[in-house]
Design a protein that fits this description.
about 450 residues, alpha+beta, four-stranded antiparallel β-sheet, 19 helices, binds zinc ion
Length: about 450
């Protein structure tokens, strides 16, 4: 008789706990966490084990302040089960799994390797380390045969045998994945010299990276995170948002964009949009989290109407939208997808020249050629800008345009008069005329 697999063993030590306390105002804790994270953040491929230990130390210190029974804060299993149970981490894991393609893939690959065996038990059972060139399933079957069903499970998740026997996949949820992360971490110390084996190391990178992705949102602003107000996040992404009576109003936004925003809010569990008023769950948002929701929700057409945010690239939507709002029409745009340099096409060469002039107003950073305006980088070594910096720059420019749009609109209109030839151009975009003629 097939019974339903009992997954309670993953969090049994946590007792009644549902959510860990969040130690927001604990300066001592954050100082401690910062010192470990500094070492963790040094990206160095050879030091994966060391980085994992540093991250783990930070997470455990955080959990030790958050468990209800502080007398047990020294017990690693108690802390680990508390972390595995925590509903907020679980919800965040589920959200990331839903909205972030890379995260989703990483989790699936990690689960495909499950369960993670105790390195010490593998040695005792005289089982050779898994060779990544071998089929993992065959290896698991062989190891499972050796594992005594009555003894404590020498693998994680502890309910793994039940799932496998029932022909189920290991559930892609926080509790199951975290138990594997914790086992990968324990193997770091108990695996001894065999841990250098390539097979075992397969678990290290994904375990560390999944833990970091889920947990890092607990860090206070300024500690490796960039948290922005919702108004800023929306403006940077091109939404026609404004503050009205301490609320964020989207009354000026188009129906289509409001629908699109609603979709984004649902995807990331950010809040709701009611009668044109945005009611966020939290006043601030970690921008990368928001952008990931945008990334996984928007369409991929690079042309189209500049006010149709749903079809524009994540990092270009704001820039293009606000350029159009100040009177410079565009035809298409591309944020370079982290590979190429971001660029857009203006409706004509005059507009492109005007756009470059405007965007280079504070610092020279865009090149113009024909109708094309391309981000070139800035500073003493423009070509050294990393893709992530380039993309962030597009958001900064969008925000600058948005905040100064009333003045810039006047400037653009004036510049058009100055530079206009004697006979007016035939193809001046309609939107530009509308805006420049609208009384202030
Ligand atoms: Zn289970």
């Amino acid at each position: 008789m097939a019974e339903k697999t009992d997954c309670g063993a993953l969090t049994a030590e946590a007792g009644e706990l549902q959510v860990l306390n969040r130690p927001a105002e604990n300066a001592e804790l954050w100082d401690f966490v910062r010192s470990w994270l500094r070492r963790f953040a040094k990206a160095d491929g050879d030091k994966a084990a060391e980085r994992f230990v540093c991250l783990w130390a930070a997470v455990m210190a955080w959990a030790a302040k958050g468990v209800p029974d502080l007398r047990r804060a020294q017990e690693e299993t108690y802390l680990a089960h508390g972390l595995a149970r925590d509903l907020r981490l679980a919800e965040r894991f589920a959200n990331l799994y839903k909205i972030d393609r890379e995260f989703h893939k990483k989790v699936d690959r990690f689960l495909a390797l499950s369960p993670v065996f105790q390195a010490a038990w593998l040695q005792k059972a005289a089982l050779a380390d898994w060779d990544p060139a071998q089929d993992r399933r065959a290896y698991i079957a062989k190891a499972m045969e050796k594992a005594d069903a009555d003894a404590p499970n020498p693998f994680a998740p502890a309910c793994g045998r039940g799932h496998i026997q029932a022909g189920e996949k290991i559930p892609a949820d926080w509790a199951h994945v975290f138990s594997m992360i914790a086992q990968a971490r324990r193997n770091l110390f108990h695996g001894g010299k065999n841990y250098k084996n390539a097979g075992e190391r397969q678990f290290l990178e994904p375990a560390m990276s999944i833990l970091w992705e889920v947990w890092r949102f607990e860090l206070p602003s300024g500690l490796l995170l960039s948290r922005v107000s919702w108004l800023r996040a929306l403006l940077r992404s091109g939404f026609m948002a404004r503050e009205a009576e301490n609320r964020i109003s989207l009354a000026d936004e188009t129906e289509a964009n409001r629908k699109y925003l609603q979709k984004l809010l649902a995807a990331g569990h950010f809040g709701t949009l009611k009668n044109g008023v945005f009611l966020p769950n939290e006043p601030y948002v970690e921008e990368s989290y928001w952008l990931r929701a945008v990334d996984s929700t928007h369409g991929s057409a690079e042309g189209g109407q500049a006010d149709d945010l749903a079809i524009m690239d994540t990092h270009m939507a704001g820039l293009v939208r606000w350029l159009n709002q100040v009177g410079i029409g565009t035809e298409l745009s591309c944020d370079g997808h982290g590979e190429k340099k971001p660029f857009f096409l203006a409706v004509d060469e005059d507009s492109a020249r005007l756009a470059a002039w405007l965007l280079n107003f504070r610092a020279s950073q865009f090149n113009q050629s024909g109708k094309t305006v391309k981000y070139a980088g800035s500073g003493p070594n423009p070509n050294a800008a990393k893709p992530a910096e380039r993309l962030k720059k597009m958001l900064d420019v969008a925000e600058w345009l948005a905040k100064n749009r009333e003045d810039l609109k006047v400037m653009v209109a004036a510049m058009r008069k100055v530079s206009a030839p004697k006979t007016p151009p035939k193809t001046e975009p309609l939107a530009v005329k509308d805006q420049s003629l609208r009384p202030k």
